[in-house]
Amino acid sequence: MTETVTTSPAEESTGSTLNPELTAHWQTRLAELVEQHGVGASLAILHRGEIVAEAAAGWAHKGAGIEATTDTVFQIGSISKVWTATVAMALVDDGVLHLDTPIVDVLPELKLADEELTRKVTLRHLLTHSSGIDGDVFTDTGRGDDNLEKYVQLLADEAVNHPLGATMSYCNSGFSLLGRVMEVVTGTQWDELMRQRLFRPLGLKQIGTLPEEALLHRAAMGHIGTPPAPAPAWGLIRNAGPAGLIHTTPREVLAFVKMHLDGGVAADGTRILAEATTAAMQEPQIDVPDKWFLATHWGLGWFLDEWDGTKVFGHDGGTLGQSAFLRVLPEHDLAICLLTNGGDAMALYRAVFNEIAGELAGVQMRAPLEPTPEPLPFDPADYVGVYERASTRLEVVERDGGLVMILTVSGIIATLAGLEPVEMELRTLQPGVFVTRRPELDAWLSVVFYELPDGTKYIHHGARATPKVA
């Protein structure tokens, strides 16, 4: 169980001292940016081994009139995956898990829709989002401690998104499966395992995985819509835990990052991971077909990118009206964490991270995408069709010689967030690659058309591979 705190304990988490000038600057600057782009946000910066600045601005809960502070806990969403991956790799260090041994060896009851997938899927496939298990299966299996066990039983009826190891497609379902594997090999339920192997050894005090733990702190509420209003629910279903249910503060996320930068050793000298294992998590494992959205490659948990020739690793997260952003520039001993709860979080992220990376590392982020000034020639027939996976349908149609993509999201996320089908024009970026703009965002997002060696056509968008079905 987490402990309540009433003051900003950056020194307790990292042994750091805030830089007063930098902190004051970012308190003012973040307030300006939140006023322009968001509802509420909290920021922390780790530089040369210390938390040098913290800031918070806007609303933690606009409906209740609760302001965001640096002690407000936000949902970090899929950044949780790197925490789950870290404990999984610690179990590899312990010899109870192995990267390339079939999962079915430790989970003999596993049944997936494809027999070969069941027999051959490994921990490496799960960590690199290359298993082919359809990644967005959000089926509620209850609040009990057996929620992951029940969830894994349901995967037998879920579609295979792509052949095992054939491509990368972001997979929440694979991390829920991984959470169950970790429970089986340790005999410890996932939430408690995270407390034992990470939260307590790192000395974290404003962190949890369950909503009742968030109630021990000042907790941010997600906001959706335009203008943003409090979401109809605070969190996601419990079996999404290993994929995205950690809540905490930016400073505690950066205490976790500092352990990774220090070769797997916590601030008090506790070894969490072997040094070689920590390094291996940051090494490329698989190419990302859409290199414009998040990253060019995926490691073991981390995604991997490059800014101005500088190595970058990190992760993002999104839940109901909350968005989280984490980037690490190891060559500059710099890490930035921004947690938000509504508005145009992508624009806020770009403004904050570009300024900090420029000021503290002399590095600029990749330039935002823009369509070609004049459309590149293409044959619409090469792209028109229906592309579909669990909870998402992409229909590409020709209109006035151009292309329009109709995005329809279904399932629990669509219901809670009130998502309706949206039509988005596709504009050319380069052959086979288009950009589109969602109604709620200013940024252009990439849409990559490609095919696998077996000839199956796919769209890669939002880090997910969606096969052509008609």
Structure, described:
With 470 residues, this protein is of the alpha+beta class. The protein has 2 domains: 1-367, Beta-lactamase, CATH 3.40.710; 380-467, Lipocalin, CATH 2.40.128. The chain has 14 helices and 21 strands. The protein has helices at 10-14, 20-37, 80-94, 115-120, 123-127, 147-154, 172-186, 190-199, 211-214, 241-244, 250-261, 275-281, 345-361, 412-417; strands at residues 40-47, 50-61, 66-67, 74-75, 223-224, 229-230, 247-248, 286-287, 297-298, 303-307, 310-318, 323-329, 334-340, 385-389, 392-399, 402-409, 422-430, 433-436, 445-451, 457-461, 464-467. It has a 9-stranded antiparallel β-sheet with strand order 3-2-1-13-12-11-10-9-8, sandwiched between helices. Strands 14-15-16-17-18-19-20-21 form an 8-stranded antiparallel β-sheet, with no helix packed on it. Helix 3 (80-94) packs parallel to helix 7 (172-186) and helix 6 crosses helix 7 (172-186). The longest helix has 18 residues, at 20-37. The radius of gyration is 21 Å and the shape is globular. The N and C termini lie far apart (50 Å). Mean pLDDT is 94; it is low at 1-16.
Element layout with pairings:
Blueprint: H1 10-14, H2 20-37, E1 40-47, E2 50-61, E3 66-67, E4 74-75, H3 80-94, H4 115-120, H5 123-127, H6 147-154, H7 172-186, H8 190-199, H9 211-214, E5 223-224, E6 229-230, H10 241-244, E7 247-248, H11 250-261, H12 275-281, E8 286-287, E9 297-298, E10 303-307, E11 310-318, E12 323-329, E13 334-340, H13 345-361, E14 385-389, E15 392-399, E16 402-409, H14 412-417, E17 422-430, E18 433-436, E19 445-451, E20 457-461, E21 464-467
Antiparallel strand pairs: 1-2, 1-13, 2-3, 4-7, 5-6, 8-9, 9-10, 10-11, 11-12, 12-13, 14-15, 15-16, 16-17, 17-18, 18-19, 19-20, 20-21
